[in-house]
Task: inverse folding
């Protein structure tokens, strides 16, 4: 039996930075341990940030689309100006935690670019101090912003991602101007790249019916899942709003939900009879398990351990039922929201009412669903236009004996 050679104590020390792209692609550096990367995104110098860990600087992934990378961005990574801005977003603007973390990830990447840690090829250098980084933030010129956009383009970022990062910078420098930190906004002459128009996915009525019938209601977990899907489609709320529903937010007699929307803006949303029936069935199972006659409190939807359900769990449950129903497993909970809005418009609801139901701040956000209602528009046209159904005028060539009047004189 071969005995493994013991490693000298000096070999246990980690180097300051990953030495090869392969090492970067397979792992992330966190504190003094090498942890597996769960984000699934290929690593590149453009998506890694330096993070202080004692006297060592570590790299964490910079893709804000990944939950793992967003959670890796912590307060130690932020310069004082960036931290003030993120506190403003959370405490004064009431942005969600995930949105704040995504803004922070974008600003860290921009800080890396400004400190020449990324985006400058062989001239890349290591991290700099927070004070020096904030000086560079305050002294940035429009040309540096354009160079950053060119860098993002070179890294094959999509136009939507680039526009989001640019929106983060706009908000950051508007904040600095309001606080008197700068006198000229460096982004005042920068245009946002034109976006591709992508229509949201939508399920038809037969697909919706098939999906909602799949969970069943034989036990507490299946009845919970059916109630979740029914509420998502019946009310059009976001999955983040669904998991934050409390028992006090329900009024099943009136058929109304109180929804905590973005920016802590509450709204009242109606739900249909099928969703109410599914909720009542789920509550019967919950009440039987509690063996208590006291009113239920806390979250509406609980996991099997009695804790709050997460948005990720809802997505996993939906994916399971999509496969069981023979539908596209790539459909997200937000697709039910798209389907809710589209079906309302197809059945004659006005755009302003749909905006209120969805909780959109701007009507232009809701207008994207008007592109999905072609059949409804055609029906309205056929019914309303005086010549839509008029008999067509025959083509002269179809007349075998055309009559031509004689010329005068």
Result:
């Amino acid at each position: 039996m071969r005995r493994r050679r013991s490693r000298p104590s000096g070999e246990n020390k980690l180097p300051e930075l990953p030495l090869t792209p392969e090492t970067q692609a397979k792992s992330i550096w966190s504190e003094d341990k090498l942890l597996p990367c769960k984000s699934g995104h290929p690593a590149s110098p453009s998506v890694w940030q330096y993070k202080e860990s004692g006297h060592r600087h570590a790299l964490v992934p910079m893709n804000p689309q990944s939950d793992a990378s967003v959670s890796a961005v912590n307060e130690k990574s932020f310069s004082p100006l960036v931290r003030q801005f993120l506190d403003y977003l959370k405490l004064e603007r009431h942005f969600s935690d995930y949105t704040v973390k995504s803004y922070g990830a974008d600003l860290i990447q921009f800080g890396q670019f400004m400190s020449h840690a990324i985006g400058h090829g062989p001239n890349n250098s290591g991290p700099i101090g927070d004070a020096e980084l904030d000086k560079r933030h305050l002294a940035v010129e429009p040309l540096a912003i354009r160079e950053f956009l060119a860098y993002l383009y070179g890294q094959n970022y999509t136009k939507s991602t680039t526009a989001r990062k640019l929106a983060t910078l706009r908000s950051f420098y508007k904040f600095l101007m309001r606080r008197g930190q700068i006198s000229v906004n460096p982004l005042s002459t920068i245009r946002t790249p034109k976006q591709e128009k992508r229509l949201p996915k939508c399920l038809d009525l037969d697909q919706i019916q098939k999906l909602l019938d799949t969970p069943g209601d034989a036990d507490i977990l299946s009845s919970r899942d059916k109630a979740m899907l029914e509420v998502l489609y019946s009310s059009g709320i976001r999955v983040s709003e669904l998991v934050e529903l409390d028992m006090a937010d329900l009024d099943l007699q009136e058929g109304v939900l109180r929804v905590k929307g973005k920016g802590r803006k509450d709204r009242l949303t109606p739900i249909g009879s099928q969703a109410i029936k599914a909720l009542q069935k789920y509550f019967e199972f919950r009440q039987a398990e509690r063996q208590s006659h006291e009113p239920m409190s806390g979250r509406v939807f609980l996991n099997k351990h009695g804790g709050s359900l997460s948005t990720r769990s809802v997505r996993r449950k939906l994916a399971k039922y999509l496969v069981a129903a023979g539908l596209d497993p790539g459909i997200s909970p937000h697709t039910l929201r798209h389907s809710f809005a589209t079906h309302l418009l197809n059945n004659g609801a006005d755009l302003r009412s749909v905006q209120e139901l969805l909780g959109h701040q701007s009507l232009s956000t809701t207008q994207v669903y008007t592109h999905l209602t072609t059949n409804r528009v055609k029906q309205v046209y056929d019914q309303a236009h005086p010549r839509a159904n008029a008999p067509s005028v025959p083509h002269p060539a179809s007349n075998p004996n055309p009559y031509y009047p004689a010329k005068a004189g």
